[in-house]
Amino acid sequence: MPLVRSILPFLVLPAALGQFASQLPLDDLRQDGGKVVNEELSSYVQNVLDANNFTGLSLGIVLPNGEVEYAAWGNRTEEGDPIDQETVMNLGSCSKAFLSASLGILIQDFADGKNKSALPNTVAEFNWDTKIRDLLPDEWLTEDQWTTEKASLKDLLSHQTGLPAHDKSYSAYDSPQDVVLQMRHLRAAYELRERYEYNNQMYITGAYVISKYSGSSYRDFVEERILLPLRMTSSTLYPNRAFESGRFSQSWTRSRRRIPFFMPEHTADLIAGAGGVMSTVEDMVQWVKLLLNSGVDAQTNNTIIPRTTFDLATSAISVSTAEGDNLTSIAGYGLGWGRYTYRGHEIFQHNGGAPGVATIVDLYPHDGYGLIMLANTAGPRVTRQIADALADRFLGLPPAGQKVRVESPVDDRTEPQRQTPAAPALPLDTSAFAIADLTGTYASIGGYGNFTLCSPVPPTSPDCLAPVQAFRTVDAAAGTPTDHTDLYAVWPRFWASHIRFSWVSGSDSEYDYSYSAEITNLYVEGYGADRTPFEDVSEVIPVRFAVEKGKVVGLGLSAALKPSWRAKKGGSLREIADVWFDKL
Ligand SMILES: *[C@@H]1O[C@H](CO)[C@@H](O)[C@H](O)[C@H]1NC(C)=O
Ligand SMILES: *[C@@H]1O[C@H](CO)[C@@H](O)[C@H](O)[C@H]1NC(C)=O
Ligand SMILES: *[C@@H]1O[C@H](CO)[C@@H](O)[C@H](O)[C@H]1NC(C)=O
Ligand SMILES: *[C@@H]1O[C@H](CO)[C@@H](O)[C@H](O)[C@H]1NC(C)=O
Ligand SMILES: *[C@@H]1O[C@H](CO)[C@@H](O)[C@H](O)[C@H]1NC(C)=O
Ligand SMILES: *[C@@H]1O[C@H](CO)[C@@H](O)[C@H](O)[C@H]1NC(C)=O
């Protein structure tokens, strides 16, 4: 999710990749019987997948003449069943475009008098500029009064509410309404519309609006209004139905370990708007054809996505990447779609990422090509390098960078420089504090809840026996010696089960021990056929402990990718952290 930083739960990543290789002669698709994926490209894809430990990938390409080409590599089960165009997979954040389409349909229903419920009388006009506050008068509240009053549906889905990704603030047992209600406790990083910052919780909020005013659940709304009319009969927002199909892919980590599906049925309602659609490449061809035809189903002439919504959703509302390079332009973000040019060709696109999920939908509206890629292993840069190589071929461009690149399994954009402690055994006794001063319970308000930090160094309190044992088990299996400066906690989040703090540097100022926190899932009994213990880190974020008057008083977690208004203003860690926990 975690779309993806990480596996940034669900990120969009108009990645600028690679460099122009030797100028191979332009090869004409027609010379290969019209096939985009010729033998050479197929083995290139295989090499990229192998180098990056991807288990399986399914591809569909819609050609300008309406014909479709499928290809697939690898497996969908650990028994070795091959993946194909009928394999069901989660779309990750490529689900977000289904939410913007759905909100557009709901708006149209009201305009056409086909509404099944009444809006509150706070709503004068229902359109993309309608304020969330008017739609959710009793629920929508953020720390910033201006944002609370002025944020519109358009701001919500174009990632410019000023709230950074607080993806650790919800657990698997929260409802969409819980996420909306917890928003008031979350710290904003920027002002409304100051900058783009990806936020899944706003898509959870958007789905909540639909469930509140459509007379049906969000999941049913998407199925009835989009999937069914588009004949996407293998697609669903209900994980149990995907499992029952017998064609649902299993999921893997980048070290080739099988992991459970990240979104079990009881959590699917929560994540539905941000990343909840399951589909096949074959079904997604219908969706891509619809989009290449501006929202009208060419088979029936039915408008599925109202035109105003389609145009807005695929336009640049916010700026997601302010700098281009020699392959890609700057990138804008609409409503569940990114827009930029790749080597001069305009593209509407979205990526999806979650544990065991990497997906892409790329549309070249002026060239008539569409591409769907569904993989059962996380790694957005891996699928992106393949998608761009495919585009080079169907756009008739000299290959830009058909080198096989190995991409890091964990996105490290926010990882602080990790330093090796001078004396690995018990190094902190040389500084003012012992590691024991950092252990204990930390409490936050809102969804972040509480966790108890444990040290692997005895004596171990009763509460700490289980987590210490769990970390020792996965470390031993990985052959990693216990790092005595690590701190562990059980922290049941949607995206993780535990958190591991690794020491970065000691106290060099008023506050701070700097740590990096790995948001991680521990599988002490393995998973699938392989019962050996392992760990799957989904994200690494910076942490600092605050020391006041010689006492550790709390810790701050980072959430924003750029310095927040608080950080710019300055102050104590308690004042400037994106997320603050008091030490109890
Ligand atoms: C494009 O940019 C990359 C990275 O900055 C560079 O190595 C490469 O030479 C550039 N290619 C061209 C054709 O300018
Ligand atoms: C797919 O399954 C086959 C048969 O079990 C196996 O030989 C192959 O290594 C598997 N490939 C991947 C990428 O896991
Ligand atoms: C929606 O429908 C209800 C009853 O069917 C009606 O009272 C209401 O005014 C309609 N429109 C809006 C904008 O709520
Ligand atoms: C692939 O998986 C193996 C373990 O199965 C691991 O040692 C290796 O580092 C992984 N490679 C990548 C690129 O992730
Ligand atoms: C769709 O509309 C076009 C143009 O109006 C018409 O030529 C075509 O027959 C229609 N197709 C269907 C399936 O109704
Ligand atoms: C966290 O700790 C505080 C202080 O002890 C307590 O009031 C609160 O209920 C706890 N929250 C949770 C989610 O356990």
From TrEMBL:
Q: Write one Pfam family the protein is assigned to.
A: Beta-lactamase
* UniProt domain Beta-lactamase-related: residue ranges: 43-389
State the signal peptide span: 1-18
Its keywords, alphabetically, are: Signal
Q: Which InterPro entries did the record assign?
A: AmpC-like, Beta-lactam-related, Beta-lactam/transpept-like
User: Which family does the similarity line name?
Assistant: Belongs to the peptidase S12 family.
Under which name does UniProt file this protein? Answer: Beta-lactamase transpeptidase-like protein
Name the lineage.
Eukaryota, Fungi, Dikarya, Basidiomycota, Agaricomycotina
